[in-house]
Amino acid sequence: EFLVKFPMDSGIASFLQMPLGYYGYDVDYHNLWIDGLPRNLPESYGVIILDRELVVPPTKEDQLADWLIRQKEVGRKIVFFGKIPFESDTVRQRVMKAFDMRGSGSAVEGIHQVSFKHQSPQTGFETPNQLTPADFHDLQAPTYSRIWLTLEAVNLKREKFQYDPIFVTKWGGALLDPHATFMRPDEDQMWKVDPFAFISAVIGPLA
To answer: How many CB atoms lie within 10 A of CB 24?
Structure first.
């Protein structure tokens, strides 16, 4: 598996640092493998973004879950970029419950039919979203969210599932793959959603 060692190799540096800077925010990077979890964050830290390349050590999943829940409770915004980074079903579902997300969070197997249920005007920013059974998760946003993209799927057992990969909510939001960006054959990445609108909706311009 690929472990990010340097900030420049992260998804945040490649995709979110520019829209964050546009609204006046500086970005600090923290390596969970090298530095562990931060003990005390200054009050000036208003948002925590979990990178799409984040790989959580199995022995630290519970610790990260507890830490994230505490950050949410003290009022910091949380953004899941790329994925909900917990391999343990138990830990992932505990985090989802604390963040009012619904579903199992697991990838749905055996999908043979996918359709769009809802697309907001903020989607299709540089390239349109495409229907794919890849990385379709049983995950729904909190009921009080502004959902920007919703997909529905049916598996081989005729069971129906819903995936809300892009949403803004009172504790932050999510930009989940494969519906955040698209890689062209020349490896240039294009946004499927307006990142400036997303950052503005989640945290707004720096006062």
So the answer is: 10
pLDDT attached to residue 206: 58
Cβ atoms of 25 and 79 within 8 Å: the answer is: no
Question: Residue 3 pLDDT more than 60?
Answer: no
Q: What is the 3-state secondary structure (H, E, C) of 37-55?
A: CCCCCCCCCCEEEECCCCC
Summarised one tens digit per residue, pLDDT across range 99-145 is: 999 999 999 999 989 999 999 999 999 899 888 888 899 999 999 99
Cα–Cα distance between 120 and 189 in angstroms, integer? 21
Q: Do residues 7 and 29 lie in contact, with contact meaning Cβ atoms separated by under 8 Å?
A: yes
Handedness of CA 165, 168, 173, 179 (dihedral sign): positive
Cα 145 to Cα 59, 155, 202, distances in angstroms: 32, 26, 11
